[in-house]
């Protein structure tokens, strides 16, 4: 893929991510009575199931807005109407906490995940995560799809893992960075990038990718999803939905999608 072609892909992915964010609650499209949850893009499939279960149990709706944790945190800083925030790392929750934008007494670690390398196709051959043979050689003329490596948790974890394994320098200029992990998944699913780094749970959300390697847990910081209520918001269902997220029904649904409990 040419550099110009990759740039067009990244521009389109970022435009799509922004459009998704604007369509899922930031502009006030949601009914005023709906609880609004900003959540990391990797939670999309599982959290939609949890929200459906909450509605079945209580009759109440939840508006879900998905994007990269960094983009969501910045939207909250700008005054976006989020009642709860679920980040894919502790750093962006810490960032909001330092600014006094979450209710610290409501914060808790919700989930854990694993980091994987995916390849295009259901039967992509395994890749050995070692300099010889190196990942750069396996990329050929293609690019490695990753979420933004200096902002989005999946990209931060991925860069840390590649650096620890001695692979980052060889692939740094071959990375196609996207605004969130699901956009990186989409590039590989469509065959526009031969490989990508995503969470294990993301790999299960696309039929046209396969896990070709798993990054050892000691190559990157622990993957933790913290959740908290946003300060200055007083939705009557916020505490109830937060309790539901940490209850048995939600735990079973998250586990079904491959998430594990936070350690």
Describe the model.
The protein is an alpha/beta fold. Helices cover 41% and strands 20% of the residues.
List keywords for this structure.
11 helices, alpha/beta, 263 residues, disordered N terminus, five-stranded mixed sheet, six-stranded mixed sheet, globular
Helices, strands, pairings?
Layout: H1 3-26, E1 35-40, H2 44-58, E2 62-67, H3 69-77, E3 84-86, H4 90-98, E4 108-112, E5 115-120, H5 135-139, E6 144-147, H6 153-164, H7 168-171, E7 175-178, H8 181-189, E8 195-199, H9 200-203, E9 209-214, E10 224-229, H10 238-245, H11 248-256, E11 260-261
User: What is the overall pLDDT average?
Assistant: 89
Rg of Cα set:
18 Å
Order of helices and strands: HEHEHEHEEHEHHEHEHEEHHE
State the major sheet.
Answer: 6 strands, mixed
What is the number of beta strands?
11
Span of the ends, CA to CA: 40 Å
Q: Identify the overall geometry.
A: globular
Secondary structural class: alpha/beta
Helix content class: 40-55%
Sheet with most strands: strand arrangement: 2-1-3-10-4-11
Counted by DSSP, the helix tally is 11
Strand content: 15-25%
- In the predicted model, the low-confidence regions spanning at least 5 consecutive residues are 1-30
């Amino acid at each position: 893929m040419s550099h110009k072609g990759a740039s067009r892909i990244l521009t389109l992915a970022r435009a799509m991510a922004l459009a998704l964010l604007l369509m899922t609650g930031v502009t006030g499209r949601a009914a005023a009575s709906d609880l609004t949850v900003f959540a990391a893009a990797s939670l999309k499939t599982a959290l939609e199931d949890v929200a459906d279960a909450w509605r079945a149990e209580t009759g109440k709706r939840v508006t879900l807005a998905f994007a990269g944790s960094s983009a969501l945190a910045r939207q909250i800083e700008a005054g976006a109407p989020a009642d709860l925030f679920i980040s894919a790392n502790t750093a962006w929750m810490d960032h909001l906490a330092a600014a006094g934008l979450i209710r610290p007494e409501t914060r808790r670690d919700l989930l854990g995940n694993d980091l994987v390398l995916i390849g295009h196709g259901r039967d992509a051959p395994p890749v050995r995560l070692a300099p010889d043979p190196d990942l750069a050689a396996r990329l050929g003329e293609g690019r490695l799809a990753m979420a933004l490596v200096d902002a989005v948790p999946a990209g931060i974890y991925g860069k840390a893992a590649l650096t620890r394994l001695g692979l980052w320098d060889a692939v740094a200029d071959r990375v196609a960075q996207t605004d969130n992990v699901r956009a990186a998944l989409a590039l590989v699913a469509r065959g526009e990038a031969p490989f990508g780094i995503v969470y294990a749970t993301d790999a299960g959300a696309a039929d046209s990718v396969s896990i070709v390697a798993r990054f050892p847990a000691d190559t990157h910081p622990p993957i933790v999803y913290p959740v908290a209520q946003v300060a200055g918001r007083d939705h009557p269902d916020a505490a109830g939905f937060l309790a539901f997220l940490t209850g048995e029904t939600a735990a079973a649904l998250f586990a079904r999608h491959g998430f594990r409990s936070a350690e």
